[in-house]
User: Fold this.
Amino acid sequence: MSKVIAFHLPQYHTVAENDRWWGEGFTEWRHLERWSPVFEGHRVRRPHESLGTYDLSTRQARAAQADLAKRHGVYGFCYYHYWFGGKLLLEKPLERMLQDGEPDLPFCMSWANEPWTRRWDGHEREVLQAQTYGGPDEWDAHLDYLLPFFRHPNYIRVDGKPMFVVYRLGQVDRHPERFARWTERLRKEGFEGLHLVMMLGNFSDNIRPIEGVDAVVEFVPNYLASANVVQRFFAKPGLEDLANAAYQATGATTVVDARKAFEKLVKLPKVHPTQYRGMFSGWDNSPRIGKRATIYRGFTPALFEEYLRIQRRRTEGYLFVNAWNEWGEGAVLEPDDQFGHALLEAIARP
Assistant:
């Protein structure tokens, strides 16, 4: 059976940059604190009382996540890694794992290589942290930082090669040279090379496999938009009452039928010899972006389990679920106030 890897967001601890950009004490939890419904009867999932809110800079919180994942058959986490030409952000939880061993769980890293902007409050053109790509010295510095993680006994390797996922590989300047250099260096460091994985998403540069990748992973529901799954409704009669002045003033909410999305998901074609299939654990990003949100209606644990079984049969080795803890986007495997532990229990069942 395929091994389930869940994408993991580390933005549950304070950092100076977020304090400066978004206000003192900002973490991902603030999106839930400030959330308001976009239509009558609208609800978002919140942490189950057994989970509560946590701080990932603490060993206790990270150990609890590992325990929860292990008990429910989640093989490992794929942590978002933020590297901006030498500048790091949200690195503390993983760095502390190297020190204290928690979470004690298989893991890999996904380079989220997009610039940080004010997209959450509608000002996408205002860049908070630019993404830059240097030459060989920067490539080496990046790999130097990653090596202690790659050497960790829990780091996921494929045929002796550390798995490294890149969100927007097509955006990385001179990426064939960069990763060829990494491969050569890793072999000198005692590895068999690099297992480079490109995300398939709804962006033109990553729709087709690019030179030098060893595998691709379906990043869903993002990737589904490239398959014409999303239908946009604006004040459509029969759908929730969205036709009010506030809604019209802020723009359309995108509403997607979750079952239709899953039906499309299990028909996505194979575009690479090694293609890790994807799943999503719900989606409603209104806590982050309000009335411009995309909401997958009709998502239930039963629906998740039905299509999880299909995707497990279709994938090769690993199945990536988006996500473990994207509370601001309504994509969570962690127990919540609506479904409890049901999504995790679905993974645990053979």
